Amino acid sequence: MLNITEILPRYTRLNVLISEISDSRTVEFEQQRFLTDFHAQFSDIQPFEAMLIELVAQTEAEQSGVLLQSLDKEIQRNIQLISVNKQTLENIDIKQACEKFTKQHDTQIANQIHITQEIWKEYKKVDNSLDTIGFKKHTEQEEKRLWEKHEELSKRYKDEKKVLSKLYEQQKEAENTARKYLDNKFGLLLSLSQTFSDILEKYLPKTETSPQNGAYFDMSLISAIHKACNDEQFESISELDLYAILNLLPSTGQFVIKNGERNRVYYLIHKLYEQLPKETNQTWRTAILQSLQLKERTYLSKYRTAKGDSSTPELEKFADNLDELFKEFGS
User: Is this prediction's pTM over 0.70?
Assistant: First the structure.
């Protein structure tokens, strides 16, 4: 049966590899092997949910909560990594990595062929000498030495041929192995993580977030955001309403995201999150997402889109402008 102590460290390793692949824009065969094997091992959804049911039923709530949140963190990280780097990962040259793996024995084979051929040449030279020795004057000792040399070279030749045959077998095995890992699995891994996320959400402990006393953001920052985004990314509201909403204070106004502007709002939330100290940023982010009826897992997979490979020029320009705005306020 699937155990969380099995899948959790493998998810962590998976995310490390995807991050490395995204940064280098290349994949090594062993990385591709891990990705493919991960999907094959965990693609059956039923054992995953059965694992969650057993964990919740048989483990103390506090301990199971920590494990579930750790798993959720890695799953959301995976969704985010693949989503943000989607274009890069879709264009990774997996075939090149597999070809490199199949050719790992080429140098050894070439060297071994040379060694084997040189011994064969020497062997044939001695063999020819034995064939003609009866037609010329020679001593018994000379013939004995030739036969000893012949036997020695025959044994060496057979041994080196075995080494060469073993290398050819290893090469063939590498070719057969590589064929199993030619497919790009990033899209399937993203789909798998999204499915896991939907299932896991049912079992995560529900926590209520309480805003701090006082404002998170001052009016000058809110005014700058209002000037830049009001009636653009969200429906028109007053500065005071925006101040109240973003500071998690009571308000009669409504923050309504316009069609097609959700990724920009995700990025705005991310910049506000960065503006806050570590002691309060997580609490604020969870609360504001709940307030705006946005799913945190979706936010985590989308907020970097503005700076990712799949960003549009318009979205990237918005992100750059927002970055400049926040620089003026120390972020």
Answer: no
